[in-house]
Design goal:
By secondary structure, this protein is an all-alpha fold. It contains 17 helices and no strands. The longest helix is centred in the C-terminal third of the chain and has 37 residues. The chain starts with 19 loop residues before the first helix and ends in a 9-residue tail after the last helix.
Length: 488
């Protein structure tokens, strides 16, 4: 099995006084923000885009699904290409490709072209996202600086979705839905200039490794089937043959991928990366947090707009306190708490905070007020995500050989993407079932009953999301090693 060991030597980056590292953090932070934003910013623009291009409600899901399918299925390949091509080249290619796909989508005159552009965005996002984290991993090797950098990066990763809701509302209401895509061109241009100047090109040591083609085909097919299966569950229901057929195919392909990785001479993902207890715990924690967060972004957004009558801009602003709390918690955690207590204490604590926030949200009703009833649990959720994400991300890439930093980073993004897909499908299904049961039990179906049914559906989703976080707390507390034992 391929050895995965720490490599913290880099003459190019040596010296604590090298401020280029912090400019590099700004550059990769811009790229990460762009990728994370795109998962939510387009959602706000969908009604306007649908009215403009004239596609049906049934077609609408493909604007989202096309992105998630290509992004989720190609992440591990993107991470490995980052290892093979080099971080700087892969980062630049990803930026240019993502900006070009965004411009194409913004200019789309047909539904088909918009969907194609979204698929291209996902493809280049899969190249960009793991490279961003790999650049961060290989740039910051001094423990204190690494903690600070991952605190900033974790805050961006956790807050990007909420920022996307605000930005999407502003751009759609003030300008046009197309600017939700055009904005990426400007962000990418800034990041590209910074990358050309400040992101170092690290010299390769040893022979250039080969790409594991069979492993790439197996895992790409497995991830495609997994994301597609959960997308079908969300839209067609769990009784759909496509849902279970794709999920079964995904499981078979994943088993075949693992068996191949155990014997491949140049594995795409060395099993020692994911079999390390700390890294496995970190990946699972990111997956659980990704699944649980959809209970906030998705259903609180519905509640604010459909029940309380908020506009898209007001909805985005409503999430800002949560973002601020997330940023504060991320910095406090990575700079003070993780070095002192380690992820074994911090991540389960964040999970329990997330569960508490979700349970709190179950008490919302049609007469609830934002300041008294919505804001407090959002603040707790922000603190939870700021506690979970940076510590998990830092641990997930700690001690990985630089030659596999890209694919190890891709596993973080893959975990978050899979978690989001699972969370969306499961929580939407559970919420819809609960709402239907409420309507069936309360007749006649007056407008107030319809409102109460929707709230009952949201509450069910929050309760299950709380369960996700409780499971995450147990798993992370069990798997993470204590600080004295370190990472393998």
């Amino acid at each position: 099995m391929t050895s995965v060991t720490a490599d913290t030597t880099s003459p190019t980056l040596a010296g604590p006084a090298d401020r280029r590292r912090w400019i590099t953090l700004v550059v990769v932070g811009l790229a990460q923000l762009m990728v994370v934003l795109d998962a939510t910013v387009v959602n706000i623009a969908l009604p306007a885009a649908q009215a403009d291009l004239g596609f049906s409600d049934g077609q609408r899901q493909w604007v989202i699904t096309a992105y998630s399918l290509s992004f989720g299925s190609l992440l591990l390949l993107g991470g490995r290409l980052s290892d093979l091509w080099g971080r700087k080249l892969t980062f630049i290619v990803g930026l240019i490709g993502f900006a070009g796909a965004s411009a194409l989508g913004g200019a789309a005159g047909t539904f088909e072209l918009l969907v194609a552009a979204r698929a291209l965005q996902g493809m280049f996002g899969a190249l960009l996202a793991p490279t961003v984290l790999a650049v961060l991993t290989t740039t910051f090797t001094i423990p204190r600086e690494r903690a600070r950098a991952f605190g900033v990066f974790g805050a961006i990763a956790g807050a990007g979705g909420a920022v996307g809701l605000l930005l999407g509302g502003v751009l759609t209401e003030v300008l046009d839905w197309r600017w939700n895509l055009y904005i990426n061109v400007f962000i990418a241009a800034l990041a590209l200039i910074g990358a050309l100047i400040f992101v170092p090109r690290l010299a390769r040591s040893g022979q250039r490794p080969r790409l594991d083609v069979p492993g790439t085909i197996l895992v790409t097919g497995a991830l495609f089937a997994l994301v597609y299966g959960f997308s079908q569950a969300e839209t067609e229901g769990w009784s759909s043959p496509w849902t279970w057929g794709m999920l079964t195919a995904s499981g078979v392909l994943l088993v075949a991928f693992v068996l191949w990785q155990a014997r491949a001479s140049h594995p795409l993902l060395p099993l020692s990366i994911v079999l390390d207890r700390n890294r496995a715990a970190a990946y699972i924690s990111v997956l659980v947090a990704g699944a649980g967060m959809f209970g906030v972004f998705l259903f609180v957004t519905y509640y604010l707009q459909l029940t309380l009558g908020y506009t898209p801009i007001q909805t985005g602003l409503a999430f800002l306190p949560m973002i601020l709390m997330l940023i504060v918690a991320a910095q406090l955690g990575t700079n003070l708490l993780v070095p002192r207590f380690g992820p074994k204490i911090l991540v389960p604590t964040g999970m329990l905070m997330g569960a508490a926030a979700m349970i709190w949200l179950t008490f919302l009703d049609a007469s609830s007020a934002y300041a008294a009833d919505v804001l407090p649990p959002l603040m707790v959720m922000g603190a939870a995500m700021g506690t979970i994400m940076p510590a998990s991300m830092q641990t997930a890439t700690l001690g990985v050989d630089r030659g596999f930093a890209g694919v190890a980073s891709a596993m973080v993004n893959t975990s978050q993407q899979v978690g989001g897909s699972i969370g969306t499908a499961l929580l939407n299904t559970l919420a819809a079932t609960a709402a239907a049961d409420y309507l069936a039990a309360h007749t006649p179906p007056t407008p107030q009953v319809a409102v109460d049914a929707a709230i009952a559906g949201y509450a069910t989703a929050y309760a299950w999301a709380a369960g996700f976080f409780v499971v995450g707390a147990v798993v992370s507390a069990t798997l993470f090693r204590g600080r004295s034992r370190g990472a393998r």
